[in-house]
């Protein structure tokens, strides 16, 4: 971590510690990991912007079915390219210490493919399709039935889509969410 | 009535959902402007409102800056956030930290905010007390940060567990976390015991010579040269230990209070941990809606997975779960006949009785085995091996037996856990009782030896034998891949851990160094299990839900400690051996307190007070008041539960109200306000209709029914409502018209009244 330290000033580190759920050591550790994705570029400029393809080489993201969504949600330029700050933000949200509400907020945005601030039928279909992976395909009617069931359970105000409040309600009632929505640094 | 409401909650109007599609965005914008969305410190909601604003402003050039400005402006409205003191700085920090924005944005906002704050601040002098308070809270925060920094850098096995988690998912990871947690717990225990009990005794022993053989079998059995050593209770000194200075160290006091504090401290810790875990995983998620499908969809993916193989397995297991759920739903719910139910219940009872009988007969056999007189040398090693073997095999047996019964998988798992836990704890209690009654010279040492042997033999088993079996299985699988691959058995492995911990609880008092042995064993076990998992096991094909299971594991550990406290309290504290150990100078162990510390023999009044306090009457009074308190709490909890139920129902109704009003507003803003009487058949019992009749009478609202203002889509239709008022036509009309797709205008004033569909309408009417 010696080299990492020289790249950040004390104020920057303090800022990062204040604004994320990490300690300074963890911030530096995260930077190491970020650097490992593109050693030259990041060695040159600590906050370099890496293209999405590079970010997706991170082991947990590589196999994640929502990888492109995750990058897009956390990218400050909204195109999936991430700077170190974006990456740190991502890791901070996925860390153990981040509260459920913050995780839920980001999960909501990840699952909201069309960006209309509601998880609608098309979003749910997309989520289910991606979850089952490329090898297995559910038939259209099965997906329809699943979507119907999810909405029946979660859609309290009957508008055919999940608003954030409804989504958060579901998350609140699930003990497994914090276990599964987690990437260790 | 409750059921009806429940039904209404769980079965929303499918028809309507499928047929009405609405522009949600516009509606959401409107909702975001509602007062409930403008919570103070609602930092999360803050983004949502601001991002909406931002959508409206998006066309402008420097977007980031503008968005930051908006957030700053929002935050400036909260007085408490903007004061120039450490408290509000901390609040600002937290608010910003929880803000779902990118880090770059947060830093931007923060810079702007602090400029704004320093602009506003009036620099009033703060008084001494406040300054002190701030200074203390700052120091505390700094210290906390530094500690968590330190913990991260010394966090043991961080990468190792992460690696395993990446390959096997978070469920197997949670086993390793549990192992690490127990290891840390025992490490603390070992350090405390060594520093307060073992080291003073070792100093005292410096000048004594050891006698007795110390061969391998002695090492396993704890006899020979090991018997009278630091390992066991009997060896410990019963008087003061003289040091070079004027100070002395009283060994009985040290032994008694160290053990007492450790047992109670760890009991409190475990209780807290269990209660916390229980609250998070059982209570907080209880009640409300069933969310089988939704939680499968939203919490199905394990984000910690890193390997392709595990990812593929995770995907296919999710796929299979979906299939299963659907087929279960599609299966015509065959109501079980009374006789099937009766039969299943009977089988469960018979099997449970059989298992209980098995456990009891095993315990009885063990007692017979212990008390049988043989001339066999090393008889004790045989007995302990048999016990270890039985305790290792029985969980597997129980696991097979539970398949005969009719439980849901998860309940079945809990039942197996409970049975195994019962067997483990029962066996250990039996051993303790046996040795306490054996009448041997120093039964505490014998019990210590027994626990020590169990730990050592189990180490042989779980560090060598079981890994060997696992590697053999994986070898067989590699030769013959048609078999099912060996999976990492989380349940069995966790039970091994719990068993070891239970032995430690039972044996710690009689063999202080057992803490070190168990700690060391857990340390080795971690590496052995990791290698086993990575080299010999395949990721599980079924998703294992870790969160609730872990709570049960914690519960078992706590329960074993509780029974230990209970048994030791009733056996040991009353009468210990008079020939060995630190308490041989006292009649009973508790006289360390009564005679040694309080010296009751000389203080008559204190003795009388204590004697009064321990009278049955006083204890009964205390128990009774406890009962009353518990009853009071329970009544309160029930009241609150029913309150929650009422509020939840209100919430549902209100969201429907909101929906209804928003739809109405939508129409009004589109200039489609129409007011038409309902068809006779659905009018009378609908609350909307009543409302229309009583409150919005055409005369006082100034409304007149005007067929020409009817919805144009309806007018275009030949059988439009205006022309053809006949029963049910309205509903059919709605369906037909919306089948055409997104017919925004088909949604009329009345259509929104229809958002409670027909049956529900009636129900709600009744309920209201």
Automatic annotation (TrEMBL), chain A:
One of its GO terms (molecular function) is magnesium ion binding. The keyword tRNA processing does not apply. Keywords: Calcium, Magnesium, Metal-binding, Repeat. It holds the Pfam family EF-hand_7. Residues 99-134, 142-177 form the EF-hand domain. The keyword GTP-binding does not apply. This is EF-hand domain-containing protein. It comes from Parnassius mnemosyne (clouded apollo). The lineage of its organism: Eukaryota, Metazoa, Ecdysozoa, Arthropoda, Hexapoda.
UniProtKB/TrEMBL annotation, chain B:
It is a multi-pass membrane protein. GO terms for molecular function: mechanosensitive monoatomic ion channel activity. It is found in: Membrane. Residues 744-757 have a biased composition (Polar residues). Residues 725-768 are annotated as: Disordered. Keywords: Membrane, Transmembrane, Transmembrane helix. Pfam families: TMC (PF07810). InterPro entries: TMC, TMC_dom. Coiled coil: none annotated. The chain crosses the membrane at residues 178-199, 253-272, 345-367, 379-401, 451-469, 513-530, 551-573, 609-633. Residues 442-547 form the TMC domain. Residues 725-739, 758-768 have a biased composition (Basic and acidic residues). Belongs to the TMC family. PANTHER family: TMC DOMAIN-CONTAINING PROTEIN, TRANSMEMBRANE CHANNEL-RELATED. This is TMC domain-containing protein. It comes from Parnassius mnemosyne (clouded apollo).
């Amino acid at each position: 971590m010696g080299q990492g330290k020289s790249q950040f000033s004390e104020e920057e580190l303090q800022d990062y510690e204040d604004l994320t759920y990490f300690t300074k050591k963890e911030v530096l550790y995260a930077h190491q990991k970020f650097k490992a994705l593109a050693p030259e570029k990041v060695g040159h400029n600590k906050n370099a912007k890496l293209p999405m393809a590079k970010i997706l080489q991170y082991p947990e993201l590589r196999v994640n079915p929502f990888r492109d969504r995750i990058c897009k949600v956390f990218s400050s330029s909204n195109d999936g390219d991430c700077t170190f700050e974006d990456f740190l933000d991502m890791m901070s949200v996925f860390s153990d210490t981040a509260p459920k509400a913050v995780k839920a907020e980001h999960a909501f945005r990840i699952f909201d493919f069309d960006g209309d601030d509601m998880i609608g039928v098309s979003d749910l279909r997309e989520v289910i399709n991606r979850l089952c992976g490329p090898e297995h395909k559910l038939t259209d009617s099965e997906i329809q039935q699943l979507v119907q069931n999810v909405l029946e359970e979660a859609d309290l105000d009957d508008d055919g889509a999940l608003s954030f409040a409804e989504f958060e309600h579901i998350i609140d009632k699930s003990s497994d969410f914090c276990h599964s929505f987690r990437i260790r640094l | 009535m409750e059921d009806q409401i429940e039904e209404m909650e769980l079965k929303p109007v499918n028809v309507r959902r499928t047929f009405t599609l609405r522009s949600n965005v516009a509606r959401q914008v409107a909702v975001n402007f509602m007062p409930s969305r403008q919570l103070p410190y609602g930092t999360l909601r803050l983004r949502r409102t601001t991002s909406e604003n931002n959508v409206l402003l998006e066309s402008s050039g420097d977007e980031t800056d503008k968005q930051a400005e908006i957030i700053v402006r929002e935050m400036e409205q909260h007085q408490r956030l903007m004061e120039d003191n450490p408290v509000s700085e901390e609040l600002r920090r937290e608010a910003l930290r929880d803000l779902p924005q990118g880090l770059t944005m947060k830093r931007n906002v923060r810079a702007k905010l602090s400029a704004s704050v320093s602009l506003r601040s009036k620099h009033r002098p703060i008084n001494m007390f406040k300054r002190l308070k701030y200074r203390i809270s700052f120091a505390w925060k700094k210290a906390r940060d530094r500690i968590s920094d330190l913990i991260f850098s010394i966090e043991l096995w961080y990468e190792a567990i992460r690696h395993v988690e990446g390959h096997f998912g978070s469920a197997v990871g949670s086993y390793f976390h549990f192992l690490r947690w127990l290891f840390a717990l025992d490490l603390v225990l070992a350090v405390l015991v060594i520093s307060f009990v073992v080291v003073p005794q070792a100093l005292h022993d410096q000048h004594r010579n050891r006698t007795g053989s110390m061969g391998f079998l002695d090492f396993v059995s704890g006899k020979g040269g090991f018997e009278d050593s630091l390992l066991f209770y009997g060896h410990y000194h019963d008087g003061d230990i003289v040091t070079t200075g004027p100070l002395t160290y009283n060994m009985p006091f040290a032994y008694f209070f160290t053990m007492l504090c450790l047992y109670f401290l760890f009991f409190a810790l475990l209780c807290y941990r269990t209660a916390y875990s229980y609250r998070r995983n059982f209570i907080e998620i209880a009640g409300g809606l069933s969310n089988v499908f939704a939680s499968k969809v939203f919490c199905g993916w394990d984000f910690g997975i890193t390997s392709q193989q595990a990812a593929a397995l995770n995907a296919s297991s999710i796929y299979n779960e979906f299939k299963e759920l659907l087929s279960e739903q599609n299966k015509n719910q065959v109501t079980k006949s009374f006789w099937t139910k009766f039969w299943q219940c009977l089988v469960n009872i018979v099997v449970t009785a059989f298992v209980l009988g098995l456990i009891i007969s095993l315990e009885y056999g063990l007692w017979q085995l212990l008390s049988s007189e043989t001339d066999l040398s090393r008889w004790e090693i045989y007995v302990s091996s048999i016990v270890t073997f039985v305790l290792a095999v029985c969980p597997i047996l129980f696991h097979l037996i539970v398949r005969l019964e009719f439980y849901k998988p998860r309940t079945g798992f809990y039942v197996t856990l409970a049975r195994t836990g019962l067997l483990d704890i029962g066996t250990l209690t039996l051993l303790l009782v046996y040795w306490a009654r054996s009448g041997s010279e120093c039964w505490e040492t014998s019990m210590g030896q027994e626990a020590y042997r169990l730990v050592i033999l189990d180490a042989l088993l779980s560090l060598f034998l079981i890994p060997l079996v696992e590697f053999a299985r994986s070898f067989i699988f590699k030769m013959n891949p048609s078999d099912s691959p060996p999976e990492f058995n989380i349940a069995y492995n966790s039970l091994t851990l719990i068993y070891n911990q239970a032995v430690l609880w039972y044996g710690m008092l009689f063999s202080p160094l057992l803490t070190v042995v168990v700690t060391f064993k857990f340390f080795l076990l971690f590496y052995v299990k990791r290698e086993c998992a990575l080299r010999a096991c395949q990721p599980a094909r079924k998703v294992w839900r870790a969160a609730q299971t872990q709570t049960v594991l914690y519960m078992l550990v706590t329960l074993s400690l509780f029974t230990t406290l209970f048994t030791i309290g009733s056996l040991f504290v009353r009468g210990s051996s008079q020939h060995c150990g630190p308490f041989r100078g006292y009649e009973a162990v508790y006289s360390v307190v009564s005679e040694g510390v309080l010296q009751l023999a000389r203080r008559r009044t204190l003795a009388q007070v204590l004697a009064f306090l321990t009278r049955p009457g006083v204890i009964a009074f205390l128990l009774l008041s406890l009962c009353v308190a518990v009853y009071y709490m329970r009544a309160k909890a029930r009241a609150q539960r029913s309150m929650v139920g009422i509020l939840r129902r209100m919430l549902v109704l209100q969201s429907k109200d909101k929906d209804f009003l928003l739809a109405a507003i939508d129409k009004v803003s589109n200039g489609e306000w129409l007011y038409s009487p309902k068809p006779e058949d659905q009018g009378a019992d609908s609350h909307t209709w009543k409302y229309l009749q009583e409150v919005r009478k055409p005369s006082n609202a100034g409304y007149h029914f005007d067929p020409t203002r009817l919805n144009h889509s309806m007018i275009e239709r030949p059988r439009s409502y205006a022309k053809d008022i006949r029963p049910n036509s309205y509903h059919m009309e709605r369906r037909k018209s919306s089948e055409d797709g997104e017919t925004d205008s088909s949604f009329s004033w009345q259509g929104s009244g229809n958002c409670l569909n027909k049956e529900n309408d009636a129900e709600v009417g009744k309920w209201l």
